[in-house]
Amino acid sequence: MSQFQPAAGASTADVGTSLDSRERLLALLDQWVDLGWLRALDSAMARFLDTEADAAGQPPSPLLLLLVALTSHQLGRGHVCLDLELMAKEGFNDALSLPPEDESVPDRCELPSDVLAQVTPEHWQEALGHPLLVAQPGLGYDGRSPLVRAGSRVYLRRFWRYEQTVFQRLQARLGSVPGLEYPTPSQGSEAALISALTVLFPGHQEDVDWQKVACANAARQGFSVITGGPGTGKTTTVVKLLAALQHGAMTSADEPRVLRIQLAAPTGKAAARLNESIAGAVKGLDLGGLPEPELLRAAIPTEVTTLHRLLGAIPGSRRFRHDRLNPLMADVLVIDEASMVDLEMMARVLEALPDDARLILLGDKDQLASVDAGAVLGELCQRAATGHYWPSTGAWLGEVTGYPVPRVLLDEQGKPLDQAITLLRRSYRFDEHSGIGQLAAAVNQGCEGGRSGEQARQLFSAGYADLARIPVPAASADEVMARHCVEGGRESFLNGGEGRQDRGGAIDPPAGYRHYLETMKSSRPDRLAGIEVWDQWAASVLEAFGRFQVLAALRKGRYGVEGLNKQIAARLKAMGLISVTDGWYPGRPVLVTRNDYGLGLMNGDIGIALMIPARQWENGQESVDPEHLVLRVAFPSGDGAGDIRWVLPSRLQQIETVYAMTVHKSQGSEFDHACLVLPDRISPVLTRELVYTGITRAKFWFSLLLPDQGVFDVALARQVNRSSGLGACLFGEG
Ligand SMILES: Nc1ncnc2c1ncn2[C@@H]1O[C@H](COP(=O)(O)OP(=O)(O)OP(=O)(O)O)[C@@H](O)[C@H]1O
Predict the structure, then answer these.
(1) Which residue lies with its CA nearest to atom 12 of ligand 1?
(2) Does ligand 1 come within 6 angstroms of the Cβ of 234?
(3) pTM of the model
(4) Cα distance from N-terminal residue to C-terminal residue, the chain
């Protein structure tokens, strides 16, 4: 039984410290806000609830006020709830990251460990017994209390609701709530599925073809997850799955019809990327053995939208046009890059999805979790590697695909959720000769005793052509980093990056930022050139920029985005590649940091400022005015068609220069050469998931700028561990 279960007769009297009085506690919260340890919002919430409860004649205890502020603080750090048991286990200061690492503690400032040193489970129990502010589900929960407590977890009400929505709707989709099952989505006959799979996956391979198994498994149920590392064929598989589903529906004996399929991704950038790859995959499908192959192909959509667009974001509100009362018009919804979907968005999607629609999540379970609270995909897939398929699931998959599920992955005690998950286990992008693939696997492979740090270190010196580790001495850090980022560091790679091939084609040596700026200058069109020529030029500069990206773990400091942006710009200017380092200038690359529906730009879009002739309208036709040059920012159109959208710099409100971007922001993107910069000191954001995400952004070249080897080892030994109750609910542990 949890130590946080009710106990009688406890009192917080004589606990000491700032828990002596509400005034002292609120003053401490303000001090933490002043130090930048808490958000103003965290302390304001405690203060607001204090006032409200006091006015209702039920003043809360100082300990409860502290709990409110800390629960809000944890939310800001991506945790769905504050887990008291975990906090006691990990140590208060570490679990709360207070003070944030690297921060010194001023004299006379209490730390959580000081304040909470004498607090016992009974004290928590008493504080959480507040009748107005805290509710316990099942014990007269009225849906109005601002806090909800479930076992040792404390939630802000909104997040408790999101978690319950996701849990209950997934359970219903999985058919594991007696009497509450959603109708099984129409899937056509098993015979139709088998014939589609036979055409889509011709031949038989020696090992299990997990792509085929994933298709069959996802076709079988209303909810499924297909997870796998980079290049394991998630897109390829989902396209085949959609073909199989569509074939089943179109040839259904009862009610032949075409399914309404929606494709979505959490960010504009990820949507644009899927847009491009899915169009190619649909075109390349060999449907020859199925009836009316071209009709079938035409019934597989290639247009991908963002989740915000799909649900119909209402400006200035958290609400969406599509919800429980106004569900989406869809029979199938596919969400790519699902690791980036936070708990709130997942709840909104599940609410807006018709009960009989099919939901398919695609993503890499090992990537960084969403920026906002929750780690939904990671939690759903926590047992993916070990299968836990019921023998009946294994037998059915074996019959339909011809690949029996290996015995080690079978488990009589498996959970309904386990049956819905398929892990793609083979990368088609990175073979055994790929250092990037090996490195990503080593980083992922357990973190006990710093083993993966050592393994990863060995890989850098094992002669892989695509990997380079560049030590960064503190004395010359700015110089070393800026040079690498501008030149691309060819000399750090085997054979100077020459002579590599990919599927028969030569791979260009690793580029740095010099490359796109030289492309900008050398291929600049003649002044008199027409609009299309300027568009093509912009597309080539954007494409050249996409060949390289510096990724930083941190925002601030010398090794963070801000410091790197400054150093790189200064070096580019010193070399005459850009004219100034601040404000707008030709060649400035910018990252959109917030969706702007008016301009049609999405968070994550990258544009480059370019000097072009002004455009004019004459006789109803647009042309260029060669005498009048203006600075405009070129963005790819986002539909994969290669068109350019030109935007006035002054209209871009939410952008930042993007020589360096955070690893978080890079999710869903891919670059020929990715360079990861780690800081010289350990910080809470440095985790295995962050390093893995950074590495897997690289397609052909990966370089690591490393001021301190120890930081790399420590980062690999730490995993993101977000407090949440979803996994425990779904796997029946709590
Ligand atoms: N079964 C297969 N046999 C051969 N090549 C394959 C197979 N599956 C996928 N590929 C190839 O591997 C590459 C990656 O496939 P795909 O884009 O589907 O993977 P992904 O998991 O979606 O990648 P990402 O990590 O970019 O999301 C593509 O070039 C694809 O054509």
Answers:
(1) 428
(2) yes
(3) 0.85
(4) 11
